[in-house]
């Protein structure tokens, strides 16, 4: 360690040189002096002083930011996903946007979105309260209707903004380590495992959650850097961030306040109250950090884990002690308590009631949640290092359950123990890799907890934030291995980091190539589902999804055949023989194609039920094939009843049975079958009050016949 420089002052008296010994030369005679004895007064105890309070460690030194890394990260994030702009809705987009009646209302649906669960219209109560992304979808519906191109552009823009914020935040943490901060951000932005989040519109809840967590951490760091209470009294360079975040908070305050209190204070009074609260918070960096956390919660309630990142950031990078770091959490804990109070009031639950479902919650039924969690840890780590292959669905039985005799389960267990030990050592020494492991644990907690507590399945989206923890460890390791510091012959910075930069150019280049390639799989459902088939043939969901796409094609073929027949029959005065022959040829061709697509669908559905014999939705799709594509009414009835046996809360099965019985009842003038139709329509509304098709069909039947049957004996139900 270099010695500290002594302060300037008067010259010190030179120390006397030692006398020469005879061996070194002649000794000069020295005059004898009497020895002097110094008598000191007795020591007196010093008067006790009052204990002084410890000096505040705030504000910390202000750290300046080079702007090229954030801009480059934003640009890379935007360019990587530009090939998603022409994509359609895929996977959960249909349920979150197309089938969400409140989203379809635009602005008018926002108050309802703040009062309902995320999957309200899917008849499941998972306890998910994530209105912010749904509100953005409603705004898009208001201005652009069903235009997925705009939604994909917005997702890409938000991801680019995330890169910009991360680029600034990482430089704040890693003072004067611009290259290291940039490379960590680059790994995060380029990583292909993010495609599920960005390329799938529904993934906006995850993008917004992480973006607001990053803004919260950045705003709080700004709070640590300043002694001013009001952020706008600081330097002008803080105004863009403070102003834009404050403006968003105030607008959000109006929207949320007017929506939440429309039935109590009224929309206007509620909006004014929301503006006052958010406007007050927006005057300081601490307030903006609290507002950002609230918006992160509204995006995804699993943002609660970010509370651990606030003290960790201070301990590792601001060099505050543990107590100072922890005590700073109190305003954020208040925000968390208020949010969960709001959630309880709005949807009536904090946890929901996950369904008993082999497809999505198999490990709960098998009672192997704990062992499977350890096994999945290894899968997550592997995908962080080598993100191939990537699959949109890992339902039963893509990854077999973990158990006591499974090698991968034990490997995951000992890996977890090892990571915990390393995290503790990294915490004590405040190392960069220690922070990376800590970040990984914190951000992976919701994903691993989904398996541990609910027995849920593996999902790539759970690693979205955890990638940054991996990036910290990776870049630290490469720096240690490839960067050589030399005090004797110091080299320019770029020369010293050339090996790291060269290797990372290759790694991020491969990551980027994989990202762009993977984006193409998310073009639409047909491409996405078939892309998973080679890598997840044992997924009952993938098999069903592929089958449903063939069903869609079969329906189009049938519709085309019907259209040709209608056009031919409409020819006046009547079609010629030649016209009839040409029309019949086209009709036969389309029906043959429909039958072929129906058979392919049934093949995949049979494979799906082989994997999971009680898969009600697969039986429903089978019934639909026989009802709409290769008509066989008896088979359709049989498989709809199989659906109800396997999944008795699946409303569409009741509704479609009602349609079949209503059609037969009118055709045969059979009142009993019409009563059966009414009964099944009523059952669809009982199992799912939000199911609109059953409600509409019941209302129409009641209006035309006056029949309303809510109960029938089993003998009648089984007879038909």
UniProtKB/TrEMBL annotation:
Alphabetical UniProt keywords:
Membrane, Repeat, TPR repeat, Transmembrane, Transmembrane helix
Q: Which residues form a coiled coil?
A: none
Q: Where is the composition biased (Low complexity)?
A: 33-54
Which Gene3D superfamilies does the entry mention? Tetratricopeptide repeat domain (1.25.40.10)
Regions crossing the membrane: 64-82, 153-171, 177-195, 207-224, 244-265, 272-297, 322-341, 376-395, 407-424, 431-452, 464-482, 494-513
Q: Where is this region: Disordered?
A: 1-54
User: What InterPro entries does the record tag this protein with?
Assistant: O-mannosyl-transferase_TMTC (IPR052346), TPR-like_helical_dom_sf (IPR011990)
Keyword match Transmembrane helix: yes
* Identification of the protein by name: Uncharacterized protein
Species annotation: Spirosoma montaniterrae
């Amino acid at each position: 360690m270099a010695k500290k420089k002594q302060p300037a002052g008067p010259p010190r008296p030179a120390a006397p040189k030692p006398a020469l010994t005879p061996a070194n030369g002649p000794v000069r005679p020295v005059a004898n002096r009497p020895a002097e004895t110094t008598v000191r007064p007795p020591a007196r105890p010093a008067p006790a002083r009052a204990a002084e309070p410890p000096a505040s460690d705030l504000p910390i030194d202000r750290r300046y930011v080079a702007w090229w890394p954030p801009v480059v990260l934003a640009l890379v994030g935007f360019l990587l996903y530009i090939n998603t702009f022409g994509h359609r809705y895929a996977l959960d987009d249909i349920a979150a946007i197309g089938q969400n009646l409140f989203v379809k209302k635009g602005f008018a649906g926002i108050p309802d979105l703040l009062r309902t669960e995320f999957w309200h219209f899917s008849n499941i109560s998972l306890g998910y309260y994530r209105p912010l992304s749904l509100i953005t979808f409603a705004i898009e519906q208001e201005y652009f209707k069903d235009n997925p191109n705009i939604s994909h552009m917005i997702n890409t823009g938000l991801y680019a903004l995330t890169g910009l914020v991360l680029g600034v935040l990482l430089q704040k943490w890693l003072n004067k380590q611009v290259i290291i901060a940039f490379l960590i951000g680059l790994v995060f932005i380029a990583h292909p495992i993010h495609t599920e989040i960005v390329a799938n519109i529904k993934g906006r809840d995850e993008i917004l959650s992480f973006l607001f967590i990053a803004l919260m951490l950045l705003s709080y760091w700004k709070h640590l850097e300043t002694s001013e209470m009001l952020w706008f009294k600081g330097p002008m360079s803080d105004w863009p961030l403070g102003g834009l975040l404050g403006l968003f908070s105030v607008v959000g305050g109006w929207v949320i306040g007017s929506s939440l209190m429309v039935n109590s204070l009224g929309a206007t009074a509620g909006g004014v109250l929301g503006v006052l609260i958010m406007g007050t918070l927006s005057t300081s960096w601490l307030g903006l950090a609290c507002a950002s956390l609230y918006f992160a919660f509204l995006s995804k309630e699993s943002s609660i884990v970010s509370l651990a990142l606030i003290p960790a950031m201070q301990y590792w990078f601001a060099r505050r002690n543990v107590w100072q770091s922890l005590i700073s959490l109190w305003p954020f804990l208040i925000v968390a308590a208020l949010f969960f109070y709001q959630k309880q009031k709005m949807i009536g639950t904090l946890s929901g009631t996950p369904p008993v479902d082999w497809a999505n919650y198999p490990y709960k039924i098998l009672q192997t949640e704990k062992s499977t969690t350890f096994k999945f840890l290894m899968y997550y780590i592997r995908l962080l290092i080598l993100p191939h292959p990537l699959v949109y669905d890992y339902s039963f039985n893509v990854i077999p359950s973990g158990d006591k005799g499974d090698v991968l389960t034990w490997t995951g267990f000992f890996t977890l123990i090892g990571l915990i030990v390393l995290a503790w050592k990294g915490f004590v020494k405040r190392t960069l890799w220690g922070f990376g492991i800590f970040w990984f644990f914190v951000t992976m907690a919701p994903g691993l907890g989904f398996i541990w507590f609910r027995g849920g399945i593996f999902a790539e989206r759970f690693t979205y934030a955890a990638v940054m923890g991996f990036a910290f460890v990776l870049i630290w390791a490469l720096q240690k291995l490839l960067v050589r510091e030399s005090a004797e012959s110091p080299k320019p910075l770029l020369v010293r980091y050339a090996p790291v930069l060269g290797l990372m150019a290759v790694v991020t280049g491969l990551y980027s190539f994989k990202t762009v390639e993977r984006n193409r799989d998310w073009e639409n459902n047909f491409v996405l589902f078939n892309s998973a088939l080679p890598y997840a043939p044992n997924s009952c969901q993938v098999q069903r999804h592929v089958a449903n796409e063939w069903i869609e094609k079969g329906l189009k073929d049938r519709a085309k055949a019907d259209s040709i027949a209608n056009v031919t029959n409409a020819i006046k005065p009547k079609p010629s023989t030649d016209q009839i022959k040409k029309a019949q040829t086209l009709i036969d061709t389309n029906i043959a194609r429909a039958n072929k697509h129906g058979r392919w669908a049934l093949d995949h559905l049979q494979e799906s039920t082989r994997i999971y014999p009680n898969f009600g939705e697969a039986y429903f799709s089978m019934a639909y094939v026989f009802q709409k594509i290769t008509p066989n009414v008896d088979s359709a009835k049989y498989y709809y009843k199989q659906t109800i046996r396997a999944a008795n809360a699946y409303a569409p099965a009741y509704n479609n049975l009602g349609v079949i019985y209503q059609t037969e009842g009118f055709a045969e003038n059979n009142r009993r079958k019409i009563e059966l139709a009414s009964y099944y329509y009523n059952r669809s509304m009982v199992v799912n009050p939000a199911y609109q098709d059953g409600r509409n069909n019941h209302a129409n039947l009641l209006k035309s016949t006056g029949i309303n049957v809510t109960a029938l004996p089993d003998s009648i139900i089984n007879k038909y």
